[in-house]
What we know:
The protein is of the alpha+beta class and 650 residues long. Strand 17, helix 11 and strand 18 (453-458) form a beta-alpha-beta unit. The chain is globular.
Amino acid sequence: MAETAPDHIEPSAHYDAQDITVLEGLEAVRKRPGMYIGSTGPRGLHHLVYEVVDNSVDEAMAGYCDRITVTLHPDGSCTVADNGRGIPVSAMADQGGKSALEVVLTVLHAGGKFGGEGYKVSGGLHGVGVSVVNALSESLTAEVRREGFVWYQRYRAGGEPEGPIEKGEPSDVTGTTISFKPDEDIFDDPVFDYDTLAKRFEDTAFLTRGLSITLIDERGEPREQTFHAEGGIVDFVRHLNRTGREAIHKDVVYFESEAEEGVIEVAMQWTAGYTEAVHSYANNINTHEGGTHLSGFRTALTGTLNSYAREKGILKEKEDNLEGPDTREGLTAIISIRLRDPQFEGQTKTKLGNSEVESAVKTVVNEWLASYLEEHPRVANIVLEKALSASRAREAARKARDLTRKKSALDVGNLPGKLADCSLSDPAMCEIYLVEGDSAGGSAKQGRDRMFQAILPLRGKILNVEKARIDKILSNEEIRTIITAIGAGIKEEFQIDNVRYHKIIIMTDADVDGAHIRTLLLTFFFRQMHELIDAGMIYIAQPPLYRVAKGKEEYYAYDLEERDAIMARMGGNGEGKTNIGLQRYKGLGEMNPDQLWKTTMDPETRTILKVTMDDAVEANEVFQTLMGDDVEPRRDFIEKNAKFVSNLDV
């Protein structure tokens, strides 16, 4: 199929001080950093790098930059350099003669995308992001190459300029270099994680065809990677399908079109698997909660495949239409849209809200996909054969699905002897423990607070949903029990308002089998009820590994290091004092109810880990690797990560 649309919206070469518009002053960023970057933990720390890099990506999307270099320095600072046009440096009359560079770095909402002709499309916050980075750094240096010279400006803690912009030596190249060091008074642990940044830049390179991003780590043992994808999102789809997902047709279906709303790109390929991996982006922002672009794509995909199937007689007159899940079974797809004025829902920008985008994407996908199917009948038949097979499995699952529905939110008649429910009916006050084994379940039932804690014992290992269709999933007794207890349905029928417990806590033994059961449960929630993860309702209990006792003294340790520290305080030397009692808990059932309550279930003393999903693409790859059919990628993953394992029972 011909690809006639441009790589990006036609840019304006004009980008100067008058294209910088100021909406409001910078206020209270250091007092409330979470409002601007999400948190002061690892997520917020890395967000600083993303904001600076996104500005360089904006230059790339506008057609003026093809190289970005990110360097992590031993002193904890980071440098981002690009070969774009350079941030404007001339004076702004309406800002008291300050340079445009200083305004961008010190005034919130000052940037080249709120007016003027600076950018047609953009991904990062631009003026918002850079000024916030400046405010949350103990030092920042800007070096701009434009107008034939190098320009410098330095900032101290809190974003205060040390002086006005300085004109330096002549330069016949252009670009911007920002170096900053996160403020240790703001961030809990201001150490950048190489792998986190590498994953982000890999995705960005896929989404920005032709852009090269180099990540250099000068800390410890030096390492360096360059990310570049000449094929753009086509390469992205092939990358996602490289492990654990066997494509059922050779070529990646790709089309690109420019509509009034922006540039729309779609790449997709069906695989032999049962799970969909559809990822949406708006201006290079990973919208893992979806939005109007994803809705338009899904509607068009289902409608177009049904129309083709009817026209060719693949679907008979009396047969029902294919449903959305049927057409997306095994599908890997990237939907990337670039808009001049994207409207994201919430500060974290995880859902696109532009209403006009849905119909634009729907129109483009309908037109281009219909043409593709006509021109590639063999691929069309393969895809429809898989969709029809999925449809038959869905019909077979209807009776099994009905078994998971309750007559009312409090009716647990289907679960005699299984679910020990709590007394309270307000879901926000209630929590349920999914407990490995009847023995541990019995201890948990005795030790719990019956007012707000429910217990659901699980026997053995649940089905690996990564390798099963919905009919097989719903025929599994343990899974049906979990679905019924939670009360909100699964997949497209899931209704988060019907969830009966706002804390769903996985509690398994601290051994290999326990880890496997935990992974199976996480796979189930990720594939069938991912909304629970998005809402922050899934947790993992952290039972102790050791009990250390001496006389009437009793302590619990959650890892080897803590155990040894406790023993040292009690006068032991690691394993050598006979008057110190040491117990290694290999199973939850080894703890009596009081111990289980005190260490693992009492909200006042317990530690539980919330399961989050910052990167849906990476999460999807991990579950495919760990739980899919392909053995080689799983072996490679285990070998690569073996050095990080602790508390392994062998």
